[in-house]
Here is the input.
Amino acid sequence: MPWTLLFKNMFSHPFRTLLTMGSLIVAVFLLCFLRASLVALEAGVAGASSNRLMVQSAVSLFVDLPLSYQGKIENVDGVAGTCKLQWFGGIYRDPSNFFAQFAVDADRFAAAYPEVELTQGSHEDFKATRTGCIIGEDLAKRFGWKIGDTIPLQGTIFPRTDGLPWELTVSGIYKAKTANVDNQTLWFHHAYLDEALVAGQATGPRGVGVYVVALDRGASVERVASQIEDLFRNGPQRVQGTTEAEFQRQFVSMLGSVPTFLGSIGGGVLFAILFAVLNTMLLTARERTHDLGVMKALGFSDAIAFWLLLGESLLVCVIGGGLGVALAWGTQGPLGAGLKQLIPTYVIGQETVLEGLALAVALGFLAGIIPAWQASRLDVVEALRAEI
Amino acid sequence: MGDKAKEPAIELAGVSRTYHRGGETLKALDHFDLTIEQGSFTAIMGPSGSGKSTLLNLVGGLDRADAGLVKVAGEELTTMTNAGLSAFRADRIGFVFQGFNLLPVLTALQNVELPLLLSPLSGKERRKHATHALTLVGLEDRLDHRPRELSGGQEQRVAIARALATDPELILADEPTGDLDRASADAILDLLQRLNREHGKTIVVVTHDPKAAMAAQRTIHLDKGRLEKVVENEPKEGVAKEGEPAEAAAPVQDGVAAAETSEEAAS
Here is the structure.
């Protein structure tokens, strides 16, 4: 294979080659970015525990369940324990500082979420402090919070009647072991919230959004879910028991058609770049007709003509695509930091890197195969007559 | 080997080639017979459309005859596959074209190395052979020049060096002086004569130029795809005359051109 010729041909029009590579870099970077975003959106689903049930209202996630359900659920055969989970929706100083906050059973939380590991503070302190909370390490880093700090949260669903914010004290900082829990969440005592509601110090619905149900080892998820659903079939609130993966999927689907939209953009980008490279390669092949005729006259076979064109296309795409992947990989740190609130687990993983490179090779092949086939079929005499 | 040596370099018998263009049928060669001996220098002349280039293309394995026998360097071309013809061209034929046909992205040395890429030679050996061929045509000081940095005469000499690189038995030249001024053309003809005389190459030149034809030992005249006449030329050594700026008339001595080209001498 005349590699020297391949490289020299590739840069015979350096500006055009660099522009083609530039568009490949941008396109493959964008595709890697979209792919990593989709992977991040699905991370909660992928990392979900198979040994945990989420029990919510059968009507909607936004309808609360009665507090009395907890004891009844715990009596179901196969249930190891439960933990309340109530969306709080408070604002820290400004709505743009959004992060998730949940009211939970402080004494049951550690058992319900063993993947939430405290790196600072302790569960004992959390349990002992009525206004205590546990925060993710990314959240701590974002706002500079440390153990003992007070976090003021203005209630929106649960506003305090005195108009002041809720004050929570940092008892622990965690790092999740799996991707289904991001490191930007705040967990605090459900009892603290409920007491305030009972005492009239705050307003809002009294209940539980979701009961997190831990199962005994070996218990059938389907059977337990079905038994819990049967338990409340006649009201007052019918419930739905779903696996955590299914539960997480609801949030992804809440984004509506965003994943589909991202996928469509990716598909569009892919076709646009394929047509752009194909167009360049067809132009290259036409310009190269005379040279290929000369080479064939000198004894180069049809197969070599084929590989010269296909090789050039592959080389341009692999270099351009490779640089695109490298750009996506190199910028994941700053991009991930910038997108933390929207896509908490944005990472260019090994799979995305391999997919990006495979895509570059596929683009090179698809864009080069037609010009290469034309080159191999080129009639020597006609090619020599072609204008230079 | 002895029998092979006596075999004609080119043997055509009853060769026909017809082209169909725009509903028209053009008989480029019509039951054409020709024999060219090894080590000869033959010119082919004729008006446009007489079949000269078709003849050269068939002999060079660039095109296929519709009928008849085309035997070159002992090989029957009409039955060869495309891959077989490619290998035949690589091993047995050296082409020189009117428009030089050098690859613009490659240097003179790389252009001459090009056909050697098909050989089993190492990179070092390829460069050695290519340098030798360029020295032979008096361009040892232009190895790293690209075609656009060379004069027309120099480009054609690079093309001849490329044709010589694989040491083929047969050199086919299609209007090799067509794009050159008189002095450069004479120098190229002189070089071809020397390659024939001193290196035993069989040379076939298609030309419109009577002076180029006179450089050959024999001129074959074609008309309407048929052999019109054969003229034996008087033996003549050297085309470039004294006093003329014979750009490429570097004397070939023991396979190596003299260090100084006439171009340098003139400057």
Remarks:
- Strands of chain A lie at 52-57, 79-87, 101-104, 116-121, 132-136, 150-153, 166-176, 186-189, 210-215, 239-243.
- The longest helix of chain A spans residues 14-46.
